[in-house]
Each structure stands twice: as C-alpha cells, then as structure tokens.
Amino acid sequence: MTLGEGGTPLVPAPALSERTGCEVWLKLEGANPTGSFKDRGMTVAVSAAMRDGAEAVVCASTGNTAASAAAYAARAGVRGAVIVPEGKIATGKLAQALMHGARVVALRGNFDQALELVLQLVDRNPIALVNSINPFRIEGQKTGAFEVCDQLGEAPDVLCVPVGNAGNVTAWWKGFREYDVAPRLHGYQAEGAAPLVRGAPVENPETVASAIRIGNPARWEEAMDAFTSSRGEVRAVSDEEILDAYSFLGEREGVFAEPASAAAVAGLLKYGAEGRVVCVLTGHGLKDPTTALSRAAPVMPCEPSIEQVERAMLGDG
Length: 317
Ligand code: F0G
Prior knowledge:
This protein is α/β, with parallel strands linked by helices. It has 2 domains: 10-36 and 137-294, 3-Layer(aba) Sandwich (Rossmann fold), CATH 3.40.50.1100; 38-134, Rossmann fold. 45% of the residues lie in helices and 16% in strands. The strands form 2 sheets. Strands 1-2-10-7-8-9 form a 6-stranded mixed β-sheet, sandwiched between helices. Strands 5-4-3-6 form a 4-stranded parallel β-sheet, with helices on both faces. Helix 2 crosses helix 6 (135-141). The longest helix has 15 residues, at 239-253. The chain is globular and about 65 Å long. It binds ligand F0G. Ligand F0G binds next to helix 3, helix 8 and helix 12.
C-alpha cells in the first residue's frame, strides 16, 4: 500500500545557519504524500494490516496520523476510522481525513483520552491500530534516519525533532542505530505539553502546536532512552518561541512548516547546538491555515487601476 512516501528534500538553511553559528539543514517531511512524516510509517502499518486481514484501520490522532491513516485506508479499500480531540485539530488535517472517506469521531476530551479509548476498542474488535505504538509504524519512520545520512554522506552531529507521543524520536534513533551512527537527539516539547521535560504526565496539555498537544506519550521510556543514549536532551519551548520560529522559517528560509514542526527550530534557536544540525520539519504549513492567517500580515485591498496597483504592490506599505 504505497503512495510514494519518503525521499523528501534535505535543504540547507542559510539564515538559520547564520543566526545559530551551526551548519543547519531542514528535512522537509511535509513533502510526503499527505503532507507529514506519518506516511513513512503508515505505508508499512496499513500494508501489514491488509496482510493480516484487518477489516478496518483505526487511530487516535492530533490530526496528521488521522489524515495519513485515512489516505492509506482509502488506497487499501478498507474502512478508516479516526478519533480526534474535538476542535483541536488543524483545518487541513480534518479536511484530509474527511475527503479520504474516513469516519471522523470528535472526542470531547484530549488526545491521551482518545488513545486510551482506541486501545480498548481494538481489544474488542478485529481491527488494526495504526498509532505509533504499532511497531510497523516505527519500522517505516526510521527510514528518515537512513535518508538523512545518505543525503549528507554521513550522520549529522545533532538532530532536532518535535516530540509529542514520542514515536518519531524513537524511530529516528532506531534508524540511526541500525546505520551504526549516533548523532545527538535534541527533542523539543511545547511548554504547556512537556511531560518528558517535567518528568510527569500533564493532565490538561495546551499549546498552539496542536499536533504535539499530548500529556502522556505512549513511547515515554524509549524516547528517554534515545535522548540519554545519544547524549542528547529534551527541553521545552514556549508557544511564542514556536510561532517566532514558524514565521522565521516562512519569511527567511522560504519553508512553510506547521507550528509543531517549528518547535524543532525554536529549540535550536533557544538552546543552541554544535556542528552540523538537521531539523526535522515534520508537517507542511498548509495543514494549518488558521494559525498562519492569524499570524501573518493582512492582505492589501486594491481598486483596479494601475496607479493603485502600483502603490499597493510596490509602495512603501
Ligand atoms: N510533528 C507533527 C507535525 C506531528 O503531527 C506529530 C505527531 C509530531 C511532530 C510528534 O511526533 O507523536 O511521534 O512524537 N502527531 C501525532 C498525530 C500525534 O496524531 O498526528 P510523535
């Protein structure tokens, strides 16, 4: 079950390099078929579910997993059903899940509660869970690590990633270990949803970066092992720092990534790093037009005359 996932661009980031004194690269995971890194794992998880004769694939999600699961389920011709926190997923992700014909359930609760419920659901029914607690998801997602090493010709010194349910950082570390390399993993959580940084679950996580609004990550131990074994770190960034990085990426690097992805860059800007650094931009900015429009400058209204157009388009503003 494939849509041609992986093989995403790794581009140099000159403005970020200048600001941080590191050699910074951006891994554009938004270039995957549904616009996030989830596709790397979903192709494997849904293929395995088909092999095993599952009647439906289900997941709990903050949005991207739902969009990806829905697409691959459509492709496979099986039912997709996703459960998401009501009102807390970005518009683009919701549109994707619906367009792919998945049943979208809006839970009056948060992601952590949705995941708990969906775990009970799969216990009771012949359906496949495609959240990142599914080992096939990790097997797919680890390929990001292979690619970065191939694209650079060697491993980076540091890999910066946003952390939510902690499947992704687990997968990157697995990939690097299989490649026999060990860059430092720098994970970043949003301040209002930073259980790994605090060392305790967060009951009511809150952040503008809705994709990582998670208070009790499923792969907690493995993520902490990845940070420790790689001599890396896990730290928190504020919503304001996330949004500053989000704008910086768009305006200075020409890269539109969603807020959760910008957390990787916010962390690099806040805490620094040394050497060659890859920031994983996990999801495309188009996923979340609402946050973009609330942040960006307003459009310029204009009458259809050349003088007005000239002033509007080229004037001092
Ligand atoms: N970045 C984006 C854009 C995400 O969608 C997610 C997770 C992460 C980072 C964090 O990855 O959970 O493996 O630590 N999104 C999940 C979802 C939870 O349901 O789409 P993680």
